[in-house]
Amino acid sequence: MLRVKYGIALLIALFLVGLLPLATFAASPHFISASASDPGGNLTVTFKEAGLGDTVLISYEASANGTAVYACINGGNKHPKAANKETVSGPVSALGMFSSDKNGTVSASLLIRPLSQGSFTCPSGQTLVLAFVSYTNAGIADTTNNVSQGIPGRFSECLVDPALGLCS
User: Fold this and answer.
1) Cβ neighbours of residue 149 closer than 8 Å, sequence gap 6 or more
2) Which of 65, 68, 98, 168 counts the highest number of beta carbons within 10 A?
């Protein structure tokens, strides 16, 4: 009787060990698509990833190099030719967590906001505006599975009247 119990336990153990490689290789995370657009000064990174397994929580980071031009506009909607303009550049990113569907895919978007103007302010009677944004080297990374996808191109948008000379 004892020999039968050990035999059954051994068979179950071998069965489970045999399934381990299948579970390990069943998920093969990869990006099917990744794109970016820049409506309203933000960068929206949209992506689809597959090969994740069913209902798995995945962490993502969308990133890019960003440039933002802030300026002061007077009451006549003009930009005085003084030095009241500030350009800031640096890395920007957005984080998100999404659960894969029953087919092992995630389709989502992350919104990257422009860099802050920092301590730049306008004199009395002028309004601070975000005049221009540009993003390069955009990409999306699945930080759970160490998979990433670059998004080629330069995404830029002029948010004021181009005649003001603030968009380049």
Assistant:
1) 31, 34, 47, 139, 140, 141
2) 68
Strand partners, 84: none
Tracing tokens 């968009």 back to the chain, one arrives at 167
Q: CA–CA separation, 106 vs 98, rounded Å?
A: 7
Whether 43 contacts 135, CB under 8 Å: yes
**Could you tell me how many residues make up the chain?**
168
Cα separation, 7 vs 19, in Å, equals 19
Of 77 and 104, the structure prediction assigns the larger pLDDT to: 104
How many Cα atoms occupy the beta-carbon half-sphere of 33 within 13 Å? 8
Which tokens belong to 70? Answer: 């802030």
For residue 152, what are the CA distances in angstroms to 13, 15, 135? 49, 47, 10
pLDDT in tens, 105-142: 999 999 999 999 989 888 888 899 999 999 999 999 99
List the one residue out of 89, 90, 107 whose CA is nearest residue 98: 107
Handedness of CA 47, 48, 51, 57 (dihedral sign): positive
User: Measured between alpha carbons, how far is 96 from 8 in angstroms, rounded to an integer?
Assistant: 46
What's residue 23's pLDDT? 42
pTM across the whole model: 0.79
Cβ(94)–Cβ(45) under 8 Å?
Answer: yes
Rounded distance between C-alpha atoms, residue 37 and residue 21, angstroms:
40
